[in-house]
Write a structure and sequence with these properties.
By secondary structure, the protein is mainly alpha-helical. Helices cover about 55% and strands about 5% of the residues. The chain has 2 domains: about 425 residues, no CATH class; about 230 residues, 3-Layer(aba) Sandwich (Rossmann fold), CATH 3.40.50. A hairpin with a 2-residue loop joins β1 and β2. α2 packs parallel to α10 and α17 crosses α19. The radius of gyration is 30 Å and the shape is globular.
């Protein structure tokens, strides 16, 4: 990339010199003290409606809603402060935001660590010495981040520390070195503890020089309105992300033809709108306090070349890399010639980009990401940019003052844009794939035409031709020669009207009359889509944004969960590894608060009261095997449906017979059908049960196949003729990637679950135990209507395996999901949900008691 072209950033038409953008003339002195009640009222009205949109659509997290409320309220105070007090107020408000989200203790640790690092950056020693000390400090902090050693603060603050100080400290040292002078402590603190940062671990790399220079460099109300505009645009991006995420994304394993491949590649790239949405919101919030920062992303879908794409997407990152890596290398290498300097400096910049992405991944996720497709992606993208840059350097685009472009120019621009978009989508799908072999398998399996009729192909071709023609016509009529379009200014009336319209759509009666219930439900849902609900592979940015995948502590903070809402049995010492096909089991005589409820295990490692190993002569024993819903996760032990059912069954006897019903709860959170099958011989049969209840779920097909893949990958799969034959047939082996394994067993998932269910029946029957299949509906299934087909498939498999079925579907009738879950969008039922399940199961047992051999009168 040439320096003059690369420096243009998000404004490709900006005037440049040989070394970059022409310096902006100093702004005339502005009256930043002017108060306009009318304009202030307009901005506050917009912010109030934007806050309502955030709340109505459950955008991002509960913590983000609280932070947005604090930010908008802080703006109302900040507006009336004299200019000299606004920066100190912003710093105090930022610290208050950190405390609001993380709590007093953890925020104190975060701020303390930050002040320590800032102090090191100001040591009275040469720059390289300060940098060395900071690197040493970062290395010392990296050890506990890696999990080596203990620190007194929560793991929740690690991603925020990394986001605030790793890249920003590099920029700070660079700018302070090139522009030495007295330190403004409020600017420094405001720069590192940026107000929105605590809710966005993946944060734009704000430039320190621009942060200081652009503070109130324009008319204050104009800066505020730009901030409102960007927050609005960011919220629209987040809503668009949810539409794409829930309705367009495709599981890579399901890609079967070229049409599927195209949808997969495009939707994978489109998911980046969540990043651009968060970045727009973050920088828009900073505008509310006078920081007139530039745009973070500029219409990157319309890039007409690879250098153009590099300039448009994540502009702050591009500017950071140019400032710190590209320009120093370019000017040092210029003695070799401009072309060689350009090539080598660009190659160095992309190598540094890859390396810094590893650093970013480490500080946010706490692990190291070194994968071949990641290396290949950055190498290919860097090579494309180098080729494009050399071409542009040798054939710079003509710049004229004409108002239009010729028809051939318009057609060329459209075709270049389409080609760039296509290549980027393909590269993005490659980058976000699990591995190179997984991506190649997907592409190989998709190289067939979709099963369409000739008329459908004709309609697609006509639509494509029409779209290209209209795009060429639009480009021909537009002024300029280097971009397809520009984002128009969003006026206050657009923000006000658009916000009112969005909020109105969330009113059930309005959504019903407009026929948009499903769309509004998708826009308002924080639940995972089908692919991720089953733990399918997600892309690089999705893995960095999905806090729950890598930092349960931070997820708990963002979702406003109680401090005891721990989701890991092993972290509490309640479970231990078995090292075989059972994988793990509960530890006897332990206790801990798991997902907000106390879990106490008996001497057998069960969450239940104590039972003798031998069945008493007067007892009818029922062994309940299942995952977290069987264990009663999220409710106290006496509130679980198992405890309530046992009580109801014994009370129902009313003393009419001497038989006591004992329900032994073998449920363990996270167990799959395979776990439950192997639990029979390992533990269940030793208690001499009369009946074994297998608690089934809507995603048993996926859970069974996933667990078998895990066993094969770890080498713990037991010797079973059917499983051995299937392993040989599919080519599964130890260490294989999860997605590649899923692709290899595609078409056999149902067979696996049929085998598990049949083996369950066979083993129970051989021991004289009555097997029963109990279908359990998760609370979130109430809203996830797409699961109906999966439910039917699971019930059909259970029927085929010869299992008597007790279907609990309908137990939640008359209730909404929020009335029944233990936490927002958590499928575990609360105490009320467990009572409804117990009532439903007891009713079914009364109806079929004689058939199942139950001692009920």
């Amino acid at each position: 990339m040439t320096p003059e072209r690369a420096a243009e950033g998000g404004s490709p038409s900006a005037p440049t010199t040989a070394v970059g953008v022409l310096s902006r003339a100093p702004a005339p002195p502005l009256d930043s003290e002017t108060i306009s009640p009318a304009r202030f009222g307009t901005i506050v009205a917009q912010l109030a409606l934007l806050l309502l949109v955030i709340a109505r659509f459950n955008l991002e997290s509960a913590a983000f809603l609280h932070l947005a409320s604090l930010t908008f309220a802080g703006f109302a105070v900040h507006y009336f402060l004299p200019l000299r007090l606004r920066l100190p107020f912003f710093v105090l408000l930022s610290l208050a935001g950190i405390t609001l989200v993380l709590g007093l203790v953890q925020s104190a640790w975060l701020v303390g660590l930050g002040l320590g690092l800032i102090g090191v950056a100001h040591l009275p020693v040469p720059l390289m010495a300060r940098a060395a000390v900071l690197v040493a400090a970062g290395g010392a902090l990296a050890l506990p981040r890696w999990g080596l050693g203990h620190v007194p603060w929560s793991a929740a603050i690690w991603p925020i520390v990394g986001s605030m100080f790793v890249f920003r400290m590099i920029v700070y040292l660079y700018d302070r070195n090139h522009q030495p002078g007295p330190t403004n402590i409020w600017q420094t603190l405001g720069y590192f503890f940026l107000l929105p940062n605590v809710c966005f671990p993946l944060f734009p790399v704000v430039d320190y020089k621009k942060f200081c220079r652009n503070h109130y460099d324009d008319e204050r109300h104009e800066i505020y309105q730009v901030g409102v505009q960007w927050i609005w645009r960011g919220l629209l991006h987040l809503l668009l992300y949810r539409l794409v995420y829930h309705h367009l994304t495709v599981d890579s394993v399901e890609v079967a033809n070229l049409s599927d491949l195209a949808v997969y590649a495009v939707s994978t790239f489109l998911l980046y709108v969540r990043i651009s949405g968060q970045f727009h919101i973050a920088v828009g919030m900073l505008h509310l306090f006078g920081f007139n920062l530039p745009e973070t992303n500029s219409r990157y879908f319309l890039a007409s070349s690879f250098t153009d794409f590099w300039r448009r997407i994540n502009i702050y990152w591009k500017d950071f890399m140019l400032k710190v890596f590209y320009y120093p290398a370019y000017f040092r290498l210029r003695a070799l010639g401009d072309s060689k300097a350009l090539i080598l400096a660009t190659a160095w910049t992309f190598a540094a980009t890859w390396l810094l992405h590893l650093v970013q991944w480490f500080w946010i996720r706490g692990s190291v990401l070194i994968e071949s497709n990641d290396i290949i992606f950055w190498a290919l993208f860097g090579l494309l940019v180098i080729v494009n840059s050399v071409y542009e350097a040798r054939r710079p685009p003509a710049r004229t003052l004409k108002r239009g472009r010729t028809l051939p120019e318009a057609a060329g621009l459209v075709l270049r844009t389409m080609g760039t978009f296509t290549v980027i989508c393909v590269l993005w799908s490659f980058w976000t794939a699990e591995s190179v072999s997984d991506w190649l398998l997907m592409v190989r399996s998709s190289l067939v035409l979709p099963p369409w009729t000739s008329s459908q192909f004709a309609m697609l071709g006509a639509a494509a031709a029409l779209g290209v023609a209209l795009s060429v016509l639009a480009a021909w009529k537009r002024a300029g020669t280097d971009e397809l379009g520009a984002a128009g200014r969003i006026t206050p009336s657009v923000v006000l009207a658009g916000s009112v319209l969005l909020c109105a759509l969330t009113i059930p009666r309005v959504a019903e009359r407009t026929g948009g219930e499903e769309v509004v439900a998708a826009l308002s849902a924080e639940t995972l889509n089908r692919r991720d609900a089953e733990r399918f592979q997600r892309g690089y940015y999705e893995d960095l944004l999905d806090v729950g995948r890598f930092n349960r502590e931070l997820e708990r903070v963002y979702a406003r969960m109680p401090a005891d809402f721990v989701r890991s049995l092993s972290a509490l010492g309640l479970a231990q590894s078995t090292g075989d096909e059972q994988d793990y089991e509960m530890v006897p005589n332990r206790q801990g608060r798991f997902i907000g409820a106390m879990v106490l295990t008996n001497r057998w490692g069960m969450r239940d009261r104590d039972y003798s190993l031998a069945r008493p002569p007067e007892a009818f024993r029922i062994a309940l095997v299942g995952p977290s819903t069987a264990m009663g996760s999220g409710v106290e032990q006496h509130e679980s449906f198992e405890a309530l059912l046992e009580e109801r069954m014994n009370d129902g006897n009313g003393g009419r017979n001497s038989t006591t019903v004992e329900i032994l709860n073998f449920g363990v959170a996270g167990y799959s059908p395979f776990h439950m099958l192997y639990q029979l011989d390992r533990k269940v049969f030793g208690f001499e049960p009369n009946m074994a209840m297998f608690l089934g779920h809507v995603n048993d097909v996926e859970r069974a196949s996933r667990e078998w893949i895990n066993m094969v990958r770890k080498g713990t799969a037991p010797p079973e003729p059917f499983l051995d034959q299937l392993k040989a047939r599919t080519g599964l082996r130890t260490g294989i990637g999860t997605n590649e394994a899923r692709r290899r067993i595609k078409g056999y998932e149902r067979d696996l679950l049929v085998w598990v269910y049949r083996r369950f029946v066979e083993r129970c029957t051989a021991r004289g135990v009555q097997p029963v299949f109990v279908y359990m509906q998760a609370v979130t299934d109430i809203d996830e209507t797409w699961r109906a087909a999966d439910r039917a498939a699971v019930l059909a498999i259970a029927r085929e395996a010869g299992l008597p079925i007790l279907d609990l579907t309908g137990a939640y009738a008359g209730y909404e999901a929020p009335d029944l879950w233990i936490a927002e969008n958590d499928g575990h039922p609360n105490a009320l949900g467990n009572r409804l399940l117990a009532d439903r199961l007891y009713s079914l047992l009364l109806q079929r008691g004689r058939e199942l051999g139950l001692p009920l009168q």
